[in-house]
Amino acid sequence: MSTIHWVEAQPRSARWHSESGLPLPRRVVVADDRMRAAVAHRLACEGTALLWRGDFHNARQLLRAMDRRVGRSTPGVPGSAAEAFHAQRRFRAHRARVLGKVLVLLEEDHTLALRRAPDVRRACDEAYGPPTDGPFAVALTELLGVISAREWREKGVHVPALGARVHPHYGVFAPTRSEYVDLVARAPLPCGGAVRTAFDLGTGTGVLAAVLARRGIGQVVATDVSARARECARANMRRLGLTATVRVTGPGLYPDGRAGLVVCNPPWVPAKPASDLDLGVYDAGGGMLRGFLGGLAGRLEPGGEGWLVLSDLAELLGLRRREELMAAVEEAGLRVVGRMDTRPRHARVRDTGDPLHAVRAAEVTSLWRLAAA
């Protein structure tokens, strides 16, 4: 286990944990309410981590002040969309490294022993699993994400196509963009509408599996590589009363057998994820997309279809060409039998301050209906 070391009256140490893949801090100093944001920012940029021992709310204020200083170094918008995308990723990685230098110590039972600190034990239990031996250190930014995830898990996300809420777990992509769910809810079912079995590959929260079940499909098999996602999907099926219809399995992409309908909503951006938390957005080299296409023809029942739910964001960013997608479909022994398109409705489309605003405003999400050639 990685371990951080610091001096606090005497030499001390604790395990280091980072869900987002932040590197092990090599130098750690104790900080409290007397720490000024300018000093904290300088130390963080130099690679020194600050183990916070002051007031919890003051630590959050310090993070906001440091963030303002990081924001002053935001790069200018480059010429192409691809350059803007890569520059934005580099800046976000830099920001995460700097702000991730403010650390807190979680006790063995996940207690946060700071003045005015909230009770984070349940949130940490859900994110990290049962308490382990001894305390461990995490970035305050990560802990705030864990707290936020607990709130999302509690209140859920309303999905109009279901008329119900879906409750995302920590580390599982939340279905906050309803337009792609609406496509799956509206597309005409293959096999004359009499689909007995459907697969939902990369199910995440299970939202698309739930939509398929509500459409009357007798058996839906939902898969995911992530144990967190499988647990989340099972919990949502229990909430929705769909456990008799939806079976969640993994970690393989395809389950055994064939289906009249195979649905896949892979991560839309073929870029390397920084950590497992990014797997819902980034698909390194388009691996999941290729896996879906390559296995589809051999898993379809006669008259069956595969539905690929995919944004053209990667094409607009210059990370993939439409010709490459069509060539991959053909090479997999498939043909396109139909397509449905929709425009994004999320708030970032209207954010003119976003360096990628023009790309986001032009984005189209499509449901490609594929059949064996």
What do these coordinates show?
- The structure is a single chain.
- This protein is α/β, with parallel strands linked by helices and 373 residues long.
- It folds into two domains: 3-152, no CATH class; 156-372, Vaccinia Virus protein VP39 (Rossmann fold, 3-Layer(aba) Sandwich), CATH 3.40.50.
- Helix content is 34%, strand content 23%.
- It is built from twelve helices and 15 strands.
- β3, α1 and β4 (48-52) form a beta-alpha-beta unit.
- The longest helix is centred in the first third of the chain and has 19 residues, at 81-99.
- It is globular and about 75 Å long.
- Residues 194-272 form the Methyltransferase small domain.
- GO terms for molecular function: nucleic acid binding; protein-glutamine N-methyltransferase activity.
- Keywords: Methyltransferase, Transferase.
- This is Methylase.
Helix-residue proportion: 25-40%
* Termini separation: 51 Å
Total tally of structural domains: 2
Count of helical regions:
12
| Name of the CATH homologous superfamily of the largest domain | Vaccinia Virus protein VP39
Question: Shape from CA axes?
Answer: globular
> Class by helix and strand content?
alpha/beta
CATH architecture of the largest domain: 3-Layer(aba) Sandwich
CATH topology of the largest domain: Rossmann fold
Q: Mind telling me the CATH class of the largest domain?
A: Alpha Beta
